[in-house]
Amino acid sequence: MEAVDVVVLAYRPELSLERCVGSALEAGAGRVVVAVNNVTEAVAPSLDPLVAKWGGQPVELLPLGRNWGYAEGLNRALEKVLRAPGAPLVLLLNDDAWLAPGALHEMVQLMTRTGPRVAGVVPKVLLGDSDRIDSVGASILADGWVANRGHGESDEGQYDRVEDVGGACFAAVLLRREALLDVGPLWSPLFMYAEDADWCLRARLAGWRFVTCPTAVVRHQHSLSTATLPPAWKVGQIRRNSMLVVVRGFPPRHALGLSLVHLWQDIRGWPTQPGPVVRVAPSFLRLLPAALAGRRRIRGLVRKSPVDSLLFDGREVAQRRRPPVSAVD
Q1: pTM, whole model, 2 decimals?
Q2: Same domain, residue pair 241 and 190
């Protein structure tokens, strides 16, 4: 099997990190870099009993100090992996996810059979030990919402074919090192949620593709590490970040209109649901200048891309309701 580096970002390592890393080592990972948010060098020794269980295997612990969020935390872990020569493939894995036997081998085999412009191979991610789907890739809908494909559906073989998808959920995805270097880091102001959608959109606009690998199964204890976060904060993050993804990467004919529609939906919910608009609007406006600056670079990748018609087809929205918050991890 071609060499693979594994990058895991942990927030509450005591919950399920041991199972996650263990599955990567059993799968034959070349090395595993575990970046831990909210853990300083001084506190890191408290993880020694956990590290000792890996018995000198190729696991590197990277305490990140404060909580940088998902986007910047993953950036820091990837910087460590990418700044020196390494494996041509990088597996991203949430700390509350674990590989089923043979999953990594299946993804690597598919990657070797695809063309050089495939940025990522997406496994079938199931919810915990159930037969319900967490994601088989991700979609960016024409109304700006991001959804995990198949989330909550019973796995009855409906996704058991290799196919192109709009993007990947970074809970589990095998990425080409070359694509990571080409597309660049995640946009850290997003902090958490939709940062993978933003990265995948940039990759698609730069000519990269994503394909599914349904024979590779990954189990994911959805939102285990973030279960203690206030639901209103999570809703606000997803709404704000969805709007920012629209501003940064959508075609001009959609970007402004959709942003105004999203804001109006929040305002219309006032005063029965005041929380989202109070949190979302000021935060969105604060990040808007940076999003517009990024837009000039992102949309400069292409003047007219066929990806636009694939990702932003209004008929897709007409056929689907807005995804629930739980459909985005």
Answers
A1: 0.87
A2: no
